[in-house]
Amino acid sequence: MLTKELIAIEEKYGAHNYHPLDVVIEKAKGIWVWDVEGNKFMDCLAAYSAVNQGHCHPRIINAMKEQAEKVTLTSRAFRNDQLPLLCKELCEMTGFEMVLPMNSGAEAVETALKAARKWGYKVKGVKENQAEIIACTNNFSGRTISIISFSTEEQYKDGFGPLTPGYKVVEYGNAEALEAAINPNTVAFLVEPIQGEGGVIIPTDGYMKKVSEICKKNNVLLIADEIQSGLGRSGKLFAYMYDGIQPDMVTIGKALSGGAYPVSAVLSSKDILGVFNPGDHGSTFGGNPLGAAIARESLKVLVEEKLIENSFELGKYFKEKLQAIKSGYVKEIRGRGLFIGVELKPEAKGARRFCEALKDRGILCKETHENVIRFAPPLIITKEDIDWALPKIEEVLTTL
Ligand SMILES: *Cc1c(COP(=O)(O)O)cnc(C)c1O
To answer: Which of 148, 227, 256, 368 maximizes ligand 1 atoms within 8 Å of its Cβ, making it the mutation to test the pocket?
Structure first.
């Protein structure tokens, strides 16, 4: 079946909660994907950074196949032989003491929010139902009702009320605003060290360090949402490492499975995750042996193939080459590692048409926040691959 027919079927039978580019992908390998017509594209979105290890990485697919033939799901009513090793390996890799596994990113964030509230009541001594959590303007942490309750994107909330109480929002990048919003009921501050969906926004130097100090001083938990920025995307294991800080909780997901399966987790200390007792929280699929085996291999690939280092080096190269392009449309090019945003001026009339034009030249990107083109290819990309893409990007940015 060809592109038009498949799109028509999806439009008829599938809910319209996305506006995808009209490319129907049939297979993928590494940084490349192929559509049903046989056209080949470089993937510069990497499924919102879930495919950091590259599409269908042979080692990850092999781990998946081997585990799928043994046991896929036990539920947490019983134990399995993969989850303990995933937890241990994650702790050794990240320096945290404990892991709570979930599936989607939103579930990991919900888990961190629940842990923070319970910690507030049981440890900090906040009065029942008074806990407050502070988030940032322009945040993205998922689509559950509680998470959209602190979104500043009107569309994400419109029609979904009543919203969950207990959240405050302060300006991203403004540490004084955080300090002013804290009161004795504040239990946590949730922040993305780099805002991905918000348009690859990097806060000013020193911001993360300052908010970390403010949280410590006020006995407020610092939760870093690294679901997109983490696991090498920013050129370090976690984006918060640029600031030399230690958050109390970190949420991860996306690339934790190399895009092969939904796996997410909360990383934290015994003191904090220790607030959960049996029965407090759970998930049928969370911590399942198939997901755990895939995640273990995905983390090994990240380290053994030096993908974090590659992201750092080639991210710098890619960004510098993009910055050298002389285009009247470009307002700013920013990024860390292979997490790059090209912000366009209003006269460019939106990033969407640039993404369409890039698609026609064999590069898949997605606009974020109307005016930003995000370049976030799999971290296995080579300098030669980037050199292949650059003239096409230049053509689009200068002649459209
Ligand atoms: C994608 C994302 C999420 C949500 O993850 P899902 O798997 O889509 O639920 C949360 N936080 C950040 C920073 C993200 O980029």
So the answer is: 227
pLDDT tens digit sequence for 196-243: 999 999 999 999 999 999 999 999 999 999 999 999 999 999 999 999
Cα 175 to the center of its chain, rounded Å? 23
Which positions ≥6 away from 130 have C-beta within 8 Å?
185
pLDDT tens string 282-301: 999 999 999 999 999 999 99
User: Cα separations (Å) of 20 from 88, 196, 352, 361, 366?
Assistant: 38, 18, 11, 17, 9
Q: Which CATH architecture has domain 58-304?
A: 3-Layer(aba) Sandwich (3.40)
Distance 251 CA to ligand 1 centre (A): 9
- Do 3-56+306-399 and 58-304 agree at the fold level? no
CA distances 32 to 25, 39, 55, 246, 381, Å, are 10, 10, 8, 36, 10
Pocket lining for ligand 1, CB < 6 angstroms:
48, 104-106, 109, 140-142, 192, 196-197, 225, 227-228, 253
